[in-house]
Amino acid sequence: MTKKSGQAEAVYDARQLGIPKMLILGLQHTFAMFGATVLVPILTGLSVSTTLLMAGLGTLLFHFITKGKVPAFLGSSFAFLGGYAAVAPLLKDKMPNTEMLPYACGGVFAAGLVYLVMAALIKAFGTKKVMRFFPPVVTGPIIISIGLILAPTAITNCQTNWILALVALLTIIIFNIWGRGMAKIVPIIIGVCVSYVVAIFMGEVSLSAIGQQPLFGLPDIMIMKFDISAIITIMPIALATMMEHIGDISAIGATTGENYLANPGLHRTLLGDGLATALSSAFGGPANTTYGENTGVLALTKIYDPRVIRIAAVFAIMLSCIPKVSFIISSIPPAIIGGVSLILYGMISAIGIRNVVENQVDFTKSRNTIITALILVCALGFNAVGGISFTVAHTTITLSGLAIAAIVGIAANAILPGNDYEFVDDVNQEQGKFQTFEI
Asked: pTM to 2 decimals?
């Protein structure tokens, strides 16, 4: 393994590992995204198989638009749950509201188009002018907030069976720190497998219904429909999710050491995210978004090759057509997912801290301290109370805690004097490059 001069840790090049090992790395990313991705259709009544299909296709589309440079996986967005609940609430027996779901998808499609408008504006006026509103003192705390907001979900899952959660967590830590060769860079798969075997012996896994699952099956496609009230209800959510998108891309960039906001450009990442959302909703899938879980995997394994993410996308597409495999993965106890998430979500917050440190944000300046304080308190505080809801044209709109924090942070940074941040358009070609890794 070779290491770059001046770096504490090496960045591994997946290309040196060979196809079989790259497939395992891709499967690891599939495990990371699976739990959260399938939870959205469960909560909304959308099809799980369609969701997996659109997550895979959306990720591949995103990589195509971003020139294959950004190692991001696009999974189901939780930000639109309120929109689905308003337009197509589950029926009393918790069955899907099949009559209204197509209209909710139409509203999400319109939200995806908002991304396209913003991407066009950024392309027209330049990333540099836009990013003046998103300096590290804003994006860093937002990244920290992403991990902290996700943290309670990990604990909730762990509480279902702390033994399984700890087995998964300790296995990941042990192999990531003391593992050798391939075992060191696929600790999540090893952690899931070891804890899954333990879960079987503990009677926490039931595979009795696997025989009822067909070997192959096509996803349940549902064509969207349009309704003006549904569009007005759901489309404004895009204003919040676009801010979350900037935070996610900043987190990925902070992890890999690449300036993705400059190259391939924020306009391309927004365009890819928006088109992926529009594509998914057009055929009955949920909105897509860049996934923090997979950013945590990047930070843990230090494998930043985008091709590994594309392999995970292909796995997601395959799973959408193989109900038996999908059933086995969905049978993983929540406690195991919680144990894995415990470290991944912490990694996201740690990335935010590193972003602030590496950019030398000066907290002796009152403006920086105030901005950070406002972002953290708004993100965690408003998230705890369900955000803020208000009515516009007889339509209720809900902003999440993270969206509120982003708005407040951006506004405070623009208003308070002393904003001397200047976005660098030139990408450091030496930073974040792959290093060879020999096994």
From this structure: 0.69
